Amino acid sequence: MAVEHNSSSAAEGTIRKANSPNVSTSIQHPSQPKLRRGLSSTHDGRTPLGCSDAGLFFVFVFFIAALIRVGVHFHILDQATVDRPPLFLQMPISMSLITALYWTVRIRHGSRIWTLLGWNRPDRFYPVAALVGGIGLATAGDFIARATTPTNHLIRIWDLLLLDVLFGPLVEESFFRGCLLPVVTRTTGPFVATLATAIVFATLHPLKTFVQWACFASTGVAYGWIPVKSGSTVPSILMHATFNATLYLYQIV
C-alpha cells in the first residue's frame, strides 16, 4: 500500500540521517566530562598531569637542597651565601629547576609540555588584571613590610631582572599554578586547590615571620585565582613578575 511504502521510506530516511557523520546530535556521551565555564581543560582538573609529576619535581627540589647542605657541611659553600645566595648560585638552580620540570613532563607526556603547563594565550582582560593586581599586591605588601619588618636589604638590579622578573616567576608559576594547581583541582575543586597551593607556595619560601608567610600565602591565592579564571598560566607569571618589579621600585624611591 502507498501509506505503508511512504512510512517505510520515512523511517529509512530517519535512520540514514541518524547514522550520517555530518548530522550533529545533542546527546553527550556520559564518559565525556562537561567543561566548567571559565576553566580550560588544564585548570579544571582534567589535565593529564598527575601526582607523580609533582612528586618527581619535588624529589629534584629536595635533591638540590641536599646538595647545598652537603656543600655547606664540607665548607664548599658558607652559610651566609646560602642565606643570601648571589646571582651566580641562583641562576644555575633556577635553570636546573625549569629543566627538570620540562623533562618530567616531556618524558611522561610527550611534546605538549608548555600546553600541559597552561602556557596558552588568555583573553585580553586577564593580562591587564594581572598587571593591576601585581601592582596592588605589591603596594599592600610594601606597606605591611614597612610597618612590621624594617629592613635595609636592597635587591640588586640584575637579581631583579633575571631572577625576580624572569626566571623566578616562570619557574614557580609553571610548577605551582601550571602543574600542582590542576592536579589538586582534580581532587578538591578549584577553590580548595587554590588555597592549598598558596599554602605550599608560601611554606617553601624561607620566611622569617608569620606576617611574611601570610603575605606570601595571600599573593599565592591571587596567583592561583587568575589561571583558574583565565585558563592560562601566563597571567599568573605576569602578575608575579609585576609584583616583584613593583616591590623593587618601592625600595629605590
Structural class: mainly alpha
Unreliable parts = 1-8, 14-39
Distance between the ends: 95 Å
Mean pLDDT: 83
Beta-strand residue fraction: under 5%
For the largest beta-sheet, the strand count, sense and barrel status come to:
none
**What is the strand tally?**
0
Radius of gyration: 25 Å
Helix share of residues?
Answer: over 70%
Shape: globular
Give me the number of helical elements: 10
Q: Count the domains.
A: 1
What's the order of the H and E elements? HHHHHHHHHH
Task: Characterise this structure.
- This protein has 253 residues and is mainly alpha-helical.
- The protein has one domain (51-252).
- Helix content is 72%, strand content 0%.
- The chain contains 10 helices and no strands.
- The protein has helices at 2-19, 51-73, 79-83, 87-109, 113-116, 125-148, 157-188, 190-203, 210-230, 234-252.
- Helix 9 (210-230) packs antiparallel against helix 10 (234-252).
- The longest helix is centred in the C-terminal third of the chain and has 32 residues, at 157-188.
- The termini are far apart.
